[in-house]
Amino acid sequence: MWRDSEHSYGLVAILLHWVVAAGVIGLFVLGVWMVGLTYYDPWYNRAPDWHRSLGVLLLGILVLRIVWRLAVPRPAAEPGHKPWERVLGHAAHVSLNLLTLAVILAGYLISSADGSAVAVFDWFRVPAAFDGFERQETLAGVWHKWLAYALIGLAALHALAALKHHFVDRDRTLRRILWPTRGRDGE
Q1: What is the pTM of this model?
Q2: Other CB atoms closer than 10 Å to residue 57's CB: what's the count?
Q3: If you write DSSP's letter for every residue of 111-175 in order, what string do you get?
């Protein structure tokens, strides 16, 4: 139940998947909201602090998810999936992980552009590793924004593909990432 089986994702993979998904969506919504704040808004300083802190925590969870995926064999593809669906599905998963990493890295470059460490809820600090290249904050900000939009767009396509598999193809693609099952028929 905890580990992936031949036919289903295990509870660890499922939880990591949904925590990363919720984190990406939550950080995107927070980011879009906070850029509209004015100097006199009480959240003007607090929202970016939360955004940075949650972004660093998401990085840790994403790395854990990637390590889990590499260490634990994933379930076999559904038998009815066409070869192009398998290739696109794999490419989408790899791209989602890479885009998430890129968005977080760009955010880190924004936050550390002045050489300051990134505080994570005052629990710990991530030191600035790449600071001082010309226009770092501005360039990283542009990349952060557009990579985030690309990530959300790809995540939406990913969700639509899962819904297509569930409602049109009527296969187990969506169900097996919702809750672990034992056999092919979900028993």
Answers
A1: 0.92
A2: 16
A3: HTTTSPPEEETTTEEE---S--STTHHHHHHHHHHHHHHHHHHHHHHHHHHHHHHHHTS--STTH
**CATH of the domain spanning 11-178:** 1.20.950
Are the CB atoms for 166 and 174 separated by under 8 Å?
A: yes
Output the CA angle 94-141-33, nearest 5 degrees. 90
**Cβ distance 54 to 108 under 8 Å?**
no
What letter represents residue 163's amino acid? L
**Which letter, b or e, does each residue of 75-98 get, where b requires 16 or more Cβ atoms within 10 Å of its Cβ?**
beebeebeeebeeebeeeeeebbe
Q: Which neighbouring-strand residues pair with 118?
A: 126
Distance, CA of 140 to CA of 109 (rounded, Å) = 6
Cα(3)–Cα(72) distance, integer angstroms = 7
* Contact criterion met (CB below 8 Å) for 178 and 7: no
Domain residue ranges of the chain, discontinuous segments joined by +: 11-178
Residues sharing a CB contact under 8 Å with residue 76, sequence separation 6 or more, in sequence order: 6, 7
The predicted-structure confidence for 75-129, as pLDDT tens digits, reads as follows: 988 888 999 999 999 999 999 999 999 999 999 999 999 999 999 999 999 999 8
pLDDT tens per residue, range 12-40: 999 999 999 999 999 999 999 999 999 99
